[in-house]
Amino acid sequence: MAASVNYVATGNIRPKRFVMSDPIVAYGVVEATLTTRPIVGISQMGVRGAPGTTLDTGFAASSGQQINIFQDEDHDECLLELGAAVTGGQLLKADTNALGVPVVLSGGGSQWAGAEARDSGASGATIRVRPKLIQVYT
Question: What is the pTM of this model?
Protein backbone atom coordinates (compact mmCIF):
# COMPACT_ATOMS: atom_id res chain seq x y z
CA MET A 1 0.00 0.00 0.00
CA ALA A 2 1.74 3.14 -1.20
CA ALA A 3 0.83 6.56 0.10
CA SER A 4 0.50 9.59 -2.13
CA VAL A 5 1.61 13.22 -1.75
CA ASN A 6 2.67 14.54 1.66
CA TYR A 7 0.13 17.03 2.92
CA VAL A 8 0.21 19.23 6.02
CA ALA A 9 -2.35 18.75 8.77
CA THR A 10 -4.07 21.97 9.78
CA GLY A 11 -5.69 20.32 12.80
CA ASN A 12 -5.48 16.99 14.61
CA ILE A 13 -6.07 14.09 12.22
CA ARG A 14 -6.65 10.55 13.43
CA PRO A 15 -5.41 7.49 11.49
CA LYS A 16 -7.63 5.81 8.89
CA ARG A 17 -10.01 8.78 8.51
CA PHE A 18 -11.35 10.70 5.54
CA VAL A 19 -9.67 14.07 4.98
CA MET A 20 -10.65 17.13 2.96
CA SER A 21 -8.62 20.12 1.85
CA ASP A 22 -8.22 23.19 4.02
CA PRO A 23 -9.39 26.12 1.84
CA ILE A 24 -6.85 28.49 3.44
CA VAL A 25 -3.58 26.49 3.50
CA ALA A 26 -1.95 25.10 0.33
CA TYR A 27 -1.68 21.30 0.65
CA GLY A 28 -3.38 21.59 4.03
CA VAL A 29 -5.88 18.92 5.08
CA VAL A 30 -8.34 18.46 7.95
CA GLU A 31 -10.61 15.59 8.93
CA ALA A 32 -13.57 15.46 6.53
CA THR A 33 -16.76 16.30 8.38
CA LEU A 34 -18.87 17.76 5.55
CA THR A 35 -20.45 15.81 2.70
CA THR A 36 -20.78 19.02 0.68
CA ARG A 37 -16.99 19.33 0.11
CA PRO A 38 -14.83 16.89 -1.85
CA ILE A 39 -12.80 14.31 0.05
CA VAL A 40 -9.07 14.43 -0.73
CA GLY A 41 -8.33 10.92 0.52
CA ILE A 42 -7.74 8.79 3.62
CA SER A 43 -5.17 9.49 6.32
CA GLN A 44 -2.22 7.22 6.99
CA MET A 45 -2.79 3.99 8.87
CA GLY A 46 -0.68 4.62 11.97
CA VAL A 47 -0.07 7.21 14.66
CA ARG A 48 2.81 9.65 14.33
CA GLY A 49 4.50 8.89 17.67
CA ALA A 50 5.66 5.46 18.78
CA PRO A 51 2.54 3.52 19.85
CA GLY A 52 2.25 2.80 23.56
CA THR A 53 4.78 5.46 24.57
CA THR A 54 4.46 9.02 25.85
CA LEU A 55 4.95 10.14 22.23
CA ASP A 56 1.68 8.44 21.20
CA THR A 57 -0.95 11.18 20.92
CA GLY A 58 -3.39 8.94 19.04
CA PHE A 59 -3.10 11.19 15.98
CA ALA A 60 -1.64 10.48 12.56
CA ALA A 61 -0.64 14.16 12.57
CA SER A 62 -1.24 17.33 14.55
CA SER A 63 -1.46 20.85 13.14
CA GLY A 64 1.65 21.75 11.13
CA GLN A 65 2.90 18.18 10.75
CA GLN A 66 3.18 16.30 7.46
CA ILE A 67 0.76 13.44 6.85
CA ASN A 68 0.53 10.77 4.15
CA ILE A 69 -2.79 10.57 2.34
CA PHE A 70 -4.08 7.67 0.25
CA GLN A 71 -5.85 9.00 -2.84
CA ASP A 72 -7.92 7.88 -5.81
CA GLU A 73 -4.91 8.14 -8.14
CA ASP A 74 -3.00 5.53 -6.12
CA HIS A 75 -5.22 2.70 -7.46
CA ASP A 76 -4.41 0.87 -4.26
CA GLU A 77 -6.17 -0.25 -1.12
CA CYS A 78 -5.83 1.18 2.36
CA LEU A 79 -7.65 0.92 5.68
CA LEU A 80 -10.60 3.01 6.86
CA GLU A 81 -12.39 3.05 10.20
CA LEU A 82 -16.19 2.76 9.98
CA GLY A 83 -18.92 4.80 11.62
CA ALA A 84 -21.74 2.46 10.52
CA ALA A 85 -22.27 -1.05 9.15
CA VAL A 86 -20.95 -1.42 5.61
CA THR A 87 -21.26 -4.08 2.91
CA GLY A 88 -18.42 -4.79 0.50
CA GLY A 89 -18.85 -2.83 -2.75
CA GLN A 90 -20.69 0.12 -1.21
CA LEU A 91 -19.54 3.67 -1.83
CA LEU A 92 -18.52 5.39 1.40
CA LYS A 93 -18.62 9.01 2.54
CA ALA A 94 -17.47 10.72 5.73
CA ASP A 95 -19.68 11.13 8.78
CA THR A 96 -19.21 14.03 11.23
CA ASN A 97 -16.22 12.18 12.78
CA ALA A 98 -14.54 11.53 9.40
CA LEU A 99 -15.44 7.82 9.68
CA GLY A 100 -16.67 5.83 6.68
CA VAL A 101 -20.43 5.40 6.28
CA PRO A 102 -22.46 4.25 3.26
CA VAL A 103 -23.68 6.78 0.71
CA VAL A 104 -27.49 6.74 0.82
CA LEU A 105 -29.09 7.24 -2.58
CA SER A 106 -32.20 9.23 -1.72
CA GLY A 107 -33.42 12.72 -0.99
CA GLY A 108 -32.05 14.63 -3.99
CA GLY A 109 -28.89 16.73 -4.18
CA SER A 110 -25.37 15.35 -4.18
CA GLN A 111 -22.81 13.90 -1.81
CA TRP A 112 -19.05 13.30 -2.05
CA ALA A 113 -17.94 9.69 -1.74
CA GLY A 114 -14.31 9.00 -0.91
CA ALA A 115 -13.92 5.23 -1.10
CA GLU A 116 -15.38 1.92 -2.19
CA ALA A 117 -15.59 -0.79 0.48
CA ARG A 118 -13.61 -3.96 -0.31
CA ASP A 119 -14.88 -5.75 2.81
CA SER A 120 -17.98 -5.72 4.97
CA GLY A 121 -17.80 -4.52 8.58
CA ALA A 122 -19.68 -3.18 11.58
CA SER A 123 -19.47 0.29 13.09
CA GLY A 124 -16.07 0.73 14.75
CA ALA A 125 -14.39 -1.88 12.54
CA THR A 126 -11.48 -1.15 10.21
CA ILE A 127 -11.83 -2.50 6.67
CA ARG A 128 -9.96 -2.46 3.38
CA VAL A 129 -11.18 0.20 0.94
CA ARG A 130 -10.13 1.62 -2.40
CA PRO A 131 -9.95 5.42 -2.34
CA LYS A 132 -12.42 6.63 -4.96
CA LEU A 133 -13.39 10.30 -5.17
CA ILE A 134 -16.77 10.65 -6.85
CA GLN A 135 -19.70 13.04 -6.61
CA VAL A 136 -22.88 11.00 -6.19
CA TYR A 137 -26.21 12.52 -7.22
CA THR A 138 -29.07 11.23 -5.11
Answer: 0.90
